[in-house]
Amino acid sequence: MGSTLIDESLAFNAFMEQWRISLARCGKQLTREELLSSINMLTAAGICEFDLLWQRLAPKGCQRPKWSHQLERLFADTKPCLQVLSKTYQLGIIANQAKGLKERLERFGISHYFALIVSSSDVGLQKPDLALFRYALDQAGVLARDAVYIGDHVDNDIIPAKTLGMTAIRIHQGLAASSPDDRLYPSDVQISKLSDLLEYF
């Protein structure tokens, strides 16, 4: 959802400043440029989850700051794109999110575009667990071969979707944009923004 529908750039910048402050309190002094450089190197190697990044960067026992949703915004093309696609296709969301996902989507004014919203916190499963994807397909009443999945993360999105036989479209936005495709499970299509989907659907 983040970096696909939602522009997290402002929230990410604030988050990184909190990381830098927390690391400094734990005895690891980094400039903003040094922190971002380290993160970019790790994400280019396919390590994109915040918990894993923190484990690599922080001294043992140093507590990771929590993400804040306050500065999140929709990408400019999110609503227009969803409006067009929802007229023809059944849209759904599979997301690793805390409680309250539907309410967040309602605040953004886009929840009504989705016939199905599957949140990890509601189901008790997390991406990349294939069971979460199977659950969503079952709830939607759709076979994997008839489903198209759009995501930004190789490990959490593209690989499980391809493993199940879904068409996988990778969107190059956000933190995971520079990580390479998996050789065994490459994405079928690559796009740079959500509205690029309208060239295909």
From TrEMBL:
<dbReference type="InterPro" id="IPR006439">
    <property type="entry name" value="HAD-SF_hydro_IA"/>
</dbReference>
<dbReference type="GO" id="GO:0046872">
    <property type="term" value="F:metal ion binding"/>
</dbReference>
<dbReference type="InterPro" id="IPR041492">
    <property type="entry name" value="HAD_2"/>
</dbReference>
<protein>
    <submittedName>
        <fullName>HAD family hydrolase</fullName>
    </submittedName>
</protein>
<keyword id="KW-0460">Magnesium</keyword>
<dbReference type="InterPro" id="IPR051400">
    <property type="entry name" value="HAD-like_hydrolase"/>
</dbReference>
<dbReference type="GO" id="GO:0044281">
    <property type="term" value="P:small molecule metabolic process"/>
</dbReference>
<dbReference type="InterPro" id="IPR023214">
    <property type="entry name" value="HAD_sf"/>
</dbReference>
<dbReference type="InterPro" id="IPR036412">
    <property type="entry name" value="HAD-like_sf"/>
</dbReference>
<dbReference type="GO" id="GO:0016791">
    <property type="term" value="F:phosphatase activity"/>
</dbReference>
<keyword id="KW-0479">Metal-binding</keyword>
<keyword id="KW-0378">Hydrolase</keyword>
<dbReference type="Pfam" id="PF13419">
    <property type="entry name" value="HAD_2"/>
</dbReference>
